[in-house]
């Protein structure tokens, strides 16, 4: 899929028309996370009105077909760690570091200033 024409929330919704409503909601909300900010799986679940669905949020992000336009690398565990397979976690950690997020001992230092 050519990601260049995906610039707006409307473009994301259109590109995800074959996904479930839940997956679209997760990915559209993730699209809104600005550079230099992070969120947690739990917080994303709360933002889409499904506060107990944080594991399902992680699954939807794991299947993200629009990465890095939909920046799933900006969503971390509640303790600031990067979940998933080691290679993927390392890539996500490097991406947020490039975007100016402080990572110490392999975890994001979550503060109100950087939390989306």
Find the CATH superfamily.
Winged helix-like DNA-binding domain superfamily/Winged helix DNA-binding domain
Number of strands: 4
Mean pLDDT, as a whole number?
95
The dominant shape is globular
Q: What percent of the residues sit in helical stretches (DSSP H or I)?
A: 40-55%
Spatial extent as radius of gyration: 13 Å
Please describe the biggest sheet, giving its number of strands, its sense, and whether it closes into a barrel: 2 strands, parallel
Q: What percent of residues are in strands?
A: 5-15%
Unreliable spans are none
Number of helices: 5
Describe this structure as you would to a colleague:
The protein is built from five helices and four strands, in the order ααβααβαββ. The mean pLDDT is 95. Strands 1-2 form a two-stranded parallel sheet. It has a two-stranded antiparallel sheet with strand order 3-4. The chain has one domain: Winged helix-like DNA-binding domain superfamily/Winged helix DNA-binding domain (Arc Repressor Mutant, subunit A). The protein starts with 8 loop residues before the first helix and ends in an 8-residue tail after the last strand. α3 packs across α4. The longest helix has 13 residues.
């Amino acid at each position: 899929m050519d990601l260049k024409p995906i610039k707006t929330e409307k473009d994301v919704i259109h590109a995800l028309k074959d996904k479930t409503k839940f997956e679209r909601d997760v990915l559209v909300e993730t699209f809104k996370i600005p550079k230099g900010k992070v969120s947690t799986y739990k917080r994303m679940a709360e933002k889409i009105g499904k506060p107990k669905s944080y594991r399902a949020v992680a699954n939807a992000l794991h299947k993200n077909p629009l990465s890095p336009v939909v920046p799933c690398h900006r969503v971390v565990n509640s303790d600031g760690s990067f979940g998933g397979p080691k290679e993927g976690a390392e890539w996500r950690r490097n991406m947020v570091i490039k975007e100016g997020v402080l990572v110490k001992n392999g975890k994001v230092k979550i503060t109100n200033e950087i939390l989306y």
